[in-house]
Specification:
Blueprint: E1 2-3, E2 11-13, E3 16-17, E4 25-26, E5 32-38, E6 42-50, E7 56-61, E8 64-69, E9 74-79, E10 87-94, E11 100-109, E12 124-130, H1 132-135, H2 163-170, E13 173-179, H3 200-203, E14 206-208, E15 217-218, E16 228-232, H4 243-246, H5 251-270, E17 275-278, H6 288-291, H7 294-297, H8 306-311, E18 322-324, H9 330-337, H10 346-357, E19 363-365, H11 367-384, H12 389-399
Parallel strand pairs: 12-13, 12-16, 16-17
Antiparallel strand pairs: 1-11, 2-5, 3-4, 4-11, 5-10, 6-9, 6-11, 7-8, 7-10, 14-15, 18-19
Helix pairs in contact: 2-10, 11-12
Length: 400
């Protein structure tokens, strides 16, 4: 029995192209469709469009996760083995970024079997703007811990293990993960599509954005309103020139900071009531890239611990102060000092998600205390000779 994509018993999540209700297009990582059904037969129909790498769809059937390799281009029929009769639950999701776009064409279950009421969809919502780290790129390459990124062809990338989706699951929230490997903030910098690099300033409000797949299309922000927005941009902006490191007050660095502020203002314009969390990634980078962020935190943004934003019963009681959650134990502080020169693996993503969720008790900080803490961090980094972003990212999580 064929189930069409517009069946109301299918539950979708993510920034999806719904121009054709019979053929929704998944573009961003973490985009998913969930279904509950009966019987032993399950087939999934999809159509793939490839830009680079091998492409895989992730799926979780009855709690067990798998990956299915897709044809480079064209339609694929995925035969998914189902164990046992009775009720089953499937989550089909996009593991990778716009290295490909995949169209969901429906699924098949056995004749005489039934779709059941859709899985629970939480009311809480969060959105992430980021790069390969937020997309979960190379997250499954756990055997390469402490080493550079392995040579790969997409097989290690899995958005399920990104800190972004982990955080959403821990907070029982939906996720829109606007993440692209290699992307910087402004056009013309970063690794994505270089030498004609496309930046987040041109991607953030789009559904389709990779020119290899045709014209760009805009997203309707009325379709999804998050309570929390995470901005994790800045890692790739030092390519091809690390102008923030070379001259912090130079014209390119000043222009970048102005562009970052403008990007935040645009987000605030779309989400007047959302709380915006700004951070860098765990990858190594010069301290100048994160040292400019406190000026944004302390100026016009209201920034809170994500756990309090999504889980506190009466959000109207939240003040406009900044929040800090203390370190849960000393080994996490020492872990934060370790240089990370590759995209993080599953366990590092899990660690980041734990801290971002704010599982510990929060404590209010004044701007003076934040300034003292930042000076302390610079002192420690200078003493240890490790001026890069690993501890910087953790400090951000430590504050917010």
């Amino acid at each position: 029995m064929k189930i069409q994509p517009d069946n109301p018993l299918l539950s979708y999540s993510g920034r999806i192209d719904w121009n054709d209700r019979k053929a929704p297009v998944f573009v961003f990582p973490c985009t998913s469709v969930a279904v509950r059904f009966t019987g032993r037969l399950l087939r999934v129909h999809v159509r793939n469009r490839n830009a680079y790498w091998d492409n895989y769809l992730g799926y979780i059937l009855d709690g067990k996760q798998y990956a299915a390799e897709l044809l480079k281009n064209g339609e694929s029929l995925l035969e998914i083995p189902v164990e046992g009769d009775g009720e089953h639950e499937l989550l089909l999701f996009k593991r990778q970024d716009s290295c490909h776009e995949v169209t969901f064409l429906g699924l098949e279950i056995g004749d005489g079997e039934n779709l059941l009421s859709p899985p629970f969809k939480p009311d809480r919502k969060m959105e992430v703007y980021g790069d390969s780290v937020s997309a979960g790129e190379v997250s499954e390459a756990v055997e390469y811990v402490g080493q550079p990124n392995p040579v790969h062809n997409g097989q290690y990338s899995n958005s399920w293990y990104s800190y972004a989706w982990m955080t959403a699951r821990k907070l029982d929230a939906q996720i829109h993960d606007i993440a692209q490997g290699g992307i910087a903030l402004p056009d013309g910098t970063g690794w994505f599509l270089e030498p004609d690099a496309l930046g987040m300033e041109s991607v953030w409000d789009k559904v389709h954005y990779n020119p290899e797949f045709g014209a760009a299309s805009r997203w309707d922000f009325g379709e999804y309103t998050p309570q929390v927005v995470v901005v994790a941009i800045g890692q790739n902006d030092a390519h091809p020139v690390d102008y923030m490191k070379e001259d912090y007050q130079g014209a390119p660095a000043v222009k970048w900071r102005a562009g970052y502020g403008e990007f935040l203002r645009r987000l605030r314009g779309k989400y007047p009531e959302a709380h915006i969390v700004c951070c860098t990634t765990l990858l190594g980078h010069d301290a100048s890239w994160w040292s400019c962020l406190p000026s944004f935190w302390l100026s016009y943004l209201k920034v809170y611990d994500a756990y309090h934003l999504l889980c506190r019963k009466n959000q109207n009681t939240l003040s406009t102060g900044l929040l800090i959650h203390p370190l849960p134990c000393r080994w996490r502080l020492s872990l934060a000092y370790l240089p990370i020169q590759r995209d993080p693996g599953i366990y590092t993503h899990a660690f980041s998600a734990d801290v971002l969720c704010g599982n510990c008790r929060s404590k209010r900080l004044t701007p003076t205390r934040i300034s003292r803490l930042l000076h302390f961090v610079f002192f420690v980094q200078k003493a240890l000779g490790i001026f890069h972003g690993n501890f910087s990212f953790f400090l951000f999580q430590y504050i917010f």
